Amino acid sequence: MGEIKLTDVKKSFGALAVLKDIDLHIKDGEFVVFVGPSGCGKSTLLRTIAGLEKVSGGEIQIDGKRVNEVTAADRGLAMVFQSYALYPHMSVRQNLAFGLENSNMPKAEITERINEAARMLEIEAYMDRRPGQLSGGQRQRVAIGRAIVRRPTAFLLDEPLSNLDAELRVSTRAELAALHGRLGSTMIYVTHDQVEAMTLAHRIVVMRAGQIEQVGTPLELYNEPANRFVAGFIGAPH
Ligand code: ADP
Ligand code: MG
């Protein structure tokens, strides 16, 4: 579970080709980080994996099934966006429960999942507050919690820490790494922060203008960047 395979994936918006022949095989439990300049197609790629955008060509398979042939719930994916997208009129607890309550899940299980996520993310103290009463870092943890309660086989995270200040970014990054260790889910993570990429990733995918420029472990990219562009992104002297 949690294996994602992209074959010749293309995506255009009208005449604008945003993704061009993306080929990538993400293994179950792998932490893959996408980096690349603004506008290179990172968010679009995540959205196509999530099934929020249809591909214009090629295909995406999740655990051997084509993305567009399984329902959203069966895909086992949960997405965390850069803007937290919490419901402002609901408490933290209600935000976490939302989505689970629409399923047929027993109440006891919903409560258990929420409590578990709250413990993991250390947000127990403000479960009855509304998002407006929380700091940016707290809100982002709630957004991550909302993904955790769904127990996805893969998390799709689009610049989840970019709205946090430097100190919180570092601590939340460490929490995310610990979380990955505990859950063992596949993580697909977009960032423009090299340090995040280098510390979190099993493999880094460097994108440029809708294409994959290079894929490798942080060490491989650091030691053997394919070109100046990759070196520039990874921060290696070249
Ligand atoms: P990134 O996340 O790497 O910054 P995006 O995937 O958001 O890049 O965007 C890639 C390109 O696709 C940009 O040129 C953007 O303007 C364009 N784009 C993204 N979504 C749409 C859309 N729904 N309609 C038209 N163009 C889009
Ligand atoms: Mg983006």
What does this protein structure show overall?
Keywords: ATP-binding, Cell inner membrane, Cell membrane, Membrane, Nucleotide-binding, Transport. It is found in: Cell inner membrane. GO terms for molecular function: ABC-type maltose transporter activity; ATP binding; ATP hydrolysis activity. The chain has 238 residues and is an alpha/beta fold. Helix content is 35%, strand content 25%. It is built from nine helices and ten strands. Strands 6-7-8-3-9-10 form a six-stranded mixed beta sheet, sandwiched between helices. The chain has a four-stranded antiparallel beta sheet with strand order 2-1-4-5, covered by helices on one side. Helix 4 crosses helix 5. The chain is globular, with a radius of gyration of 18 Å. The termini are far apart. The mean pLDDT is 90. Bound molecules: adenosine-5'-diphosphate and magnesium ion (MG). Adenosine-5'-diphosphate binds next to strand 2 and helix 1.
